[in-house]
TrEMBL record:
<keyword id="KW-0378">Hydrolase</keyword>
<dbReference type="GO" id="GO:0009236">
    <property type="term" value="P:cobalamin biosynthetic process"/>
</dbReference>
<dbReference type="GO" id="GO:0043755">
    <property type="term" value="F:alpha-ribazole phosphatase activity"/>
</dbReference>
<protein>
    <recommendedName>
        <fullName>Alpha-ribazole phosphatase</fullName>
        <ecNumber>3.1.3.73</ecNumber>
    </recommendedName>
</protein>
<feature type="binding site">
    <location>
        <position position="57"/>
    </location>
    <ligand>
        <name>substrate</name>
    </ligand>
</feature>
<dbReference type="GO" id="GO:0005829">
    <property type="term" value="C:cytosol"/>
</dbReference>
<dbReference type="InterPro" id="IPR017578">
    <property type="entry name" value="Ribazole_CobC"/>
</dbReference>
<dbReference type="InterPro" id="IPR001345">
    <property type="entry name" value="PG/BPGM_mutase_AS"/>
</dbReference>
<dbReference type="InterPro" id="IPR013078">
    <property type="entry name" value="His_Pase_superF_clade-1"/>
</dbReference>
<dbReference type="InterPro" id="IPR029033">
    <property type="entry name" value="His_PPase_superfam"/>
</dbReference>
<dbReference type="InterPro" id="IPR051695">
    <property type="entry name" value="Phosphoglycerate_Mutase"/>
</dbReference>
<dbReference type="GO" id="GO:0045820">
    <property type="term" value="P:negative regulation of glycolytic process"/>
</dbReference>
<feature type="binding site">
    <location>
        <begin position="7"/>
        <end position="14"/>
    </location>
    <ligand>
        <name>substrate</name>
    </ligand>
</feature>
<feature type="active site" description="Proton donor/acceptor">
    <location>
        <position position="81"/>
    </location>
</feature>
<dbReference type="Pfam" id="PF00300">
    <property type="entry name" value="His_Phos_1"/>
</dbReference>
<feature type="active site" description="Tele-phosphohistidine intermediate">
    <location>
        <position position="8"/>
    </location>
</feature>
<dbReference type="GO" id="GO:0043456">
    <property type="term" value="P:regulation of pentose-phosphate shunt"/>
</dbReference>
Length: 197
């Protein structure tokens, strides 16, 4: 099984470097160009299914990148970006200033602590784990998952032995394309490509 992971293209929130997960924003022009660039690398692949989060930025990226409308498109909220609650829409300095106690607790216990009105990383990770475990039961040959940076890094952590600390050992840029292979009950990362616009 070939599992392609595509991080959505850039949004204005990305360019402003604010924290956002549940905020439902659209791609900017650069993000649309990144999606086109990813699509050029995927044009020869006949996907059995294309999974996206329910967020506009992921759906738009999938629609631009995948020209073959014959494949099945499935939205799944389990691969939405992490809900950061009151931290959403603010940058690093603003969150430290506006929520000093909550920020301190989050940075000291990033796995278990949920920001007010948000979710903990463990809650977020468990949804993604369930999604991937359902995917591999489908036994499709080629699937595309268009999602978010936090989701992709969590998938890496899962396939590399459920080591949640590995979340911080990977970068992921807007428009990045990863190929993960699942063969004989094992995962491995085959490639990670930056799809520049």
């Amino acid at each position: 099984m070939n599992i392609y992971l595509l991080r959505h293209g850039e949004t204005e929130s990305n360019s402003k470097k604010v924290y956002y997960g549940k905020l439902d924003v659209e791609l900017n022009q650069k993000g649309k160009a990144q999606s086109e660039a990813a699509g050029s690398k995927l044009k020869e692949i006949k996907f059995n299914k294309v999974y996206t989060s329910t967020m506009k930025r992921a759906v738009q990226t999938a629609q631009i990148a995948v020209k073959n409308k014959e494949c099945e498109f499935i939205k799944d909220k389990r691969i939405n970006e992490m809900n950061l609650g009151v931290f959403e829409g603010k940058n690093y300095e603003e969150n430290q200033r506006d929520y000093p106690e909550e920020w301190k607790r989050w940075t000291e216990d990033w796995k278990s602590y949920a920001p007010p009105k948000g979710e903990s990383y463990i809650e977020f990770y468990n949804k993604i784990k369930g999604f991937i475990e359902d995917i591999i039961k489908q036994n499709d040959e080629d699937i595309l998952i268009v999602t978010h940076g936090g989701v992709i890094k969590s998938i890496y952590a899962y396939i590399l032995g459920e080591n949640l600390d590995l979340f911080w050992k990977f970068g992921t840029k807007n428009g990045d394309l990863t190929l993960i292979k699942y063969e004989y009950g094992n995962f491995y990362i085959d490639s990670i490509v930056h799809c520049e616009e």
